User: Which sequence fits this backbone?
């Protein structure tokens, strides 16, 4: 092989392998080392080739020289392009850190609006001497219905409403079974608040979700009367919904309370800078603990009486915050959820 052909072959090899290495180098300093190994005056691969130019026939030197120049320019151009690209992507490039830039805002979590309501409700009952209670979300028919004076042929126990589990048990359809568990595990005086999750075969729409929150309350002692129920729930309602709130007790029916009542509130709210009274809104179920319930857990209903109440913090959050769709609380859109944390609950 003539020296001319050998040198042209070497140039082609150098160009091909150099272009691959340049395009796969990801650090500026590696790129600089590569540049020196290719184009360096002494040790550079191209310089080595040019030194051998003397071995080529004088008439053919021009051809080899021109080809060496072309390869050199191609490599310089490729190195420059790679350098520019790296400058955009490389974090540790020298001199790129502007320490005067303000820091990026940190993402901060916030409390869920329903939890804010539960917390507010809890704070109020805590000052009235209540403690917290809880029970399992998987319950038996006994705790969820029968002990609560609800026969299994009651519509509430219907498969259309209650989510029964495969073998036995069900997902509790209300927090009232916590009443039974609390009565079993304690002795009077009993004053508990039990927030928790409940489950029903509900359609998913603006006012229903198949799982939702409830807050159960129970007071049992000697000498508890309907006056205690009214006073407690009226005091709570005014503290939660605002001191100007009117409270009304409407006769109702629940299997586990007798007599039973529904609690309505009429609130004062601001609308376009004006204080206005809302319509009556139902916010709670309540009643005197049915003697059958007390008997079911071995209490003497002649000696002990009590009252119970249940409310839905999800619905309360809708009203408090003026949200129109309950599903918003369950979609976990941080842009929605983060609006509530610093707003006072009102
Ligand atoms: N458990 C009832 C429900 O899910 C709510 C309720 C009503 C609870 C009256 C009570 C009560 O403790 O006294 O609809």
Assistant:
């Amino acid at each position: 092989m003539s020296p001319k052909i050998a040198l042209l072959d070497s140039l082609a090899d150098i160009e091909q392998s150099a272009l691959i290495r340049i395009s796969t180098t990801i650090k500026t300093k590696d790129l600089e080392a590569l540049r020196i190994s290719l184009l360096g005056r002494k040790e550079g691969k191209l310089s080595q080739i040019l030194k051998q130019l003397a071995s080529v026939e004088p008439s053919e030197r021009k051809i080899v020289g021109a080809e060496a120049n072309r390869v050199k320019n191609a490599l310089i151009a490729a190195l420059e392009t790679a350098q520019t690209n790296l400058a955009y992507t490389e974090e540790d490039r020298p001199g790129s850190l502007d320490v005067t830039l303000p820091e990026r805002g940190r993402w901060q979590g916030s409390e869920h609006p329903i939890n804010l309501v539960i917390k507010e409700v809890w704070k109020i009952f805590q000052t009235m001497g209540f403690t917290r209670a809880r029970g399992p979300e998987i319950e038996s028919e006994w705790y969820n219905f029968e002990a609560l004076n609800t026969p299994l042929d009651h519509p509430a126990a219907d498969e259309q409403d209650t989510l029964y589990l495969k073998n036995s048990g069900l997902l509790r359809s209300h927090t009232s079974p916590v009443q039974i568990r609390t009565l079993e595990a304690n002795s009077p005086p009993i004053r508990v608040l039990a927030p928790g999750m409940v489950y029903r075969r509900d359609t998913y729409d603006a006012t229903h979700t198949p799982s939702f929150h409830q807050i159960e309350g129970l007071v049992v002692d000697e000498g508890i009367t309907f006056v205690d129920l009214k006073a407690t729930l009226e005091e709570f309602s005014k503290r939660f919904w605002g001191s100007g709130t009117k409270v009304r007790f409407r006769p109702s029916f629940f299997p586990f309370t007798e007599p039973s009542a529904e609690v309505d509130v009429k609130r004062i709210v601001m609308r376009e800078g004006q204080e206005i009274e809302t319509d009556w809104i139902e916010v709670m179920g309540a009643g005197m603990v049915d003697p059958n319930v007390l008997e079911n857990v071995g209490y003497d209903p002649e000696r002990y009486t009590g009252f119970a109440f249940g409310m839905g913090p999800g619905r309360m959050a809708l009203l408090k915050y003026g949200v129109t769709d309950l599903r918003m609380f369950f979609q976990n859109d941080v842009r929605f959820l983060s609006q509530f944390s610093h707003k006072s609950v009102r």
Summary: The chain has two domains: 3-85, 113-340. The mean pLDDT is 92. The chain has eleven helices and eleven strands. The first strand starts at residue 131 and ends at 132.
